Amino acid sequence: MANKAIIHVDMDAFYASIEQRDNPKLRNKPIAVGGNPNSRGVVSTASYEARKYGVKSAMSCKKAKILCPELIIVPVNKEKYKRVSKKLHKIFRKFSDKIEPISLDEAFIDVTGSNPIIVAKEIKKEIKQKLRLTASVGISNNKFLAKLASDMEKPDGFTVINKNDVEKILDPLPVRKLWGVGPKTEEQLNKLGIYKIKDLKNYDKNILIEKFGKKGIELIEFSKGIDNRPVEWRVKSQSIGEENTFSKDVSDINILRKAVNQYALDITKRIKKSHYLIKTVTVKIKYEDFTVETRSLTLKQPTDKLTIIRDTAHYILDNKFNIKKKVRLLGLTVSNFVYPNEPIQLRLDIDEYMRGTI
Ligand code: TTP
Ligand code: MG
């Protein structure tokens, strides 16, 4: 197979950098972009100045403030970040038609046939000029290595992993750095005495395949720096949802119903724009004691109708939960997307992606 040239771009502290760009008072300061304006929200992301104090994504704003008392918490403005994201993905499209968007601030770009160093420098330059933001880029001959590279010198990074350096870079890294290794797989590997990528590479192949099946084969390949997956458009987030932490814990079912109605309305608008239909409706409840329950219902017929989605959500709320405690957070999600005429069509249309409907 011909040598591929893959670039992975990931914006630095995306939400926080946009806020710092737009408000000079926030520049060079520890800031966090926070979930809820009330004190019960979580940190979506933190500026690099705040990360020095240990503030990071998914941490409660409360804990973040304890770690960094001078932290400035800025409310989330998702619409604004989406607008920036569209411009960002437009820049990517100038350099290749083989793009795999991963999230608002991240994508793979296949530039095989061009000099990836020159292209990546241009991409970074254009992001800086047009968006006044910095990105970290990783360059290699496959997706796994390119993504690993983009994370190595953040922020404002520019990292190339050449064929000859793969072993030297991968061997000492913890297995957690491998694609698809989360806390659970990490624990399973650790139990086998596998901690570093080198340990995995030298482990008995048959045992790994026996234990992990197809994933075992993939893990062995990744540990050697091999990854043959193509850069392709696809729906990554196969769900659309809304959730909110109430400013005060709720015991009144009517308040929950009202919230569900509002979510259903918002979600239906987004489904309609996407041209998809959905089959599964899920309600999530986080109680006052932080325990979480989710209940789903899969419809016989796919739909994009507000009444059906709303009524299904009410049905789940009334019949599939037994709410005995106060509710802290309520969420509604729809998933299991189908195209009206092509039931298993899940490929992402880039224009749809650019319109921000997915
Ligand atoms: P990331 O790329 O993971 O993080 P980042 O861009 O803020 O920082 P960096 O890449 O430099 O490490 O996520 C992109 C955006 O997605 C982030 O700015 C905010 C949002 N996000 C959340 O809302 N919640 C989360 O838990 C995470 C990880 C990200
Ligand atoms: Mg990022």
TrEMBL record:
Membrane-spanning residues: none
Cofactor requirements of the protein: Mg(2+)
Cofactor binding note of this UniProt entry: Binds 2 magnesium ions per subunit.
Protein localization: Cytoplasm
Catalytic activity: DNA(n) + a 2'-deoxyribonucleoside 5'-triphosphate = DNA(n+1) + diphosphate
Pfam families: IMS, IMS_C, IMS_HHH
Coiled-coil residue windows: none
Cytoplasm as UniProt keyword: yes
Residues given in the record as Mg(2+) binding sites: 10, 105
Quaternary structure note: Monomer.
UniProt name for this protein: DNA polymerase IV
